[in-house]
């Protein structure tokens, strides 16, 4: 389950960066809406999956609520999931 969580974290981080670094400028500067919609849906699904899997992994590994909060906050910050993967998940 941890391997799935790490993969989800990386994909969620990539989708977040694509959304804000690529498709949002296309939407607002070039008036191209389609990429933003597609990446936005993918990011939303990955975010929900990330949070659900984080809850399951924290429960299975008996991690504290503080650990979950750190993982959750990481999902809200650019590059946060990459940091969380390296700092908290890689050695777990």
From TrEMBL:
It holds the Pfam family DUF3817. It is found in: Cell membrane. Keywords: Cell membrane, Membrane, Transmembrane, Transmembrane helix. The chain crosses the membrane at residues 7-26, 38-58, 65-84. GO terms for cellular component: plasma membrane. InterPro entries: DUF3817_TM. NCBIfam families: integ_memb_HG. This is Integral membrane protein. It comes from Flagellimonas pacifica.
């Amino acid at each position: 389950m941890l391997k799935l969580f790490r993969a989800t974290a990386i994909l969620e981080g990539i989708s977040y960066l694509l959304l804000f670094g690529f498709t949002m400028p296309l939407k607002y500067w070039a008036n191209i809406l389609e990429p933003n919609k597609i990446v936005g849906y993918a990011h939303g699904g990955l975010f929900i999956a990330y949070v659900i899997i984080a809850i399951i992994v924290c429960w299975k590994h008996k991690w504290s609520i503080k650990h979950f909060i750190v993982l959750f906050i990481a999902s809200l910050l650019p590059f946060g999931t990459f940091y969380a993967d390296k700092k908290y998940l890689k050695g777990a």
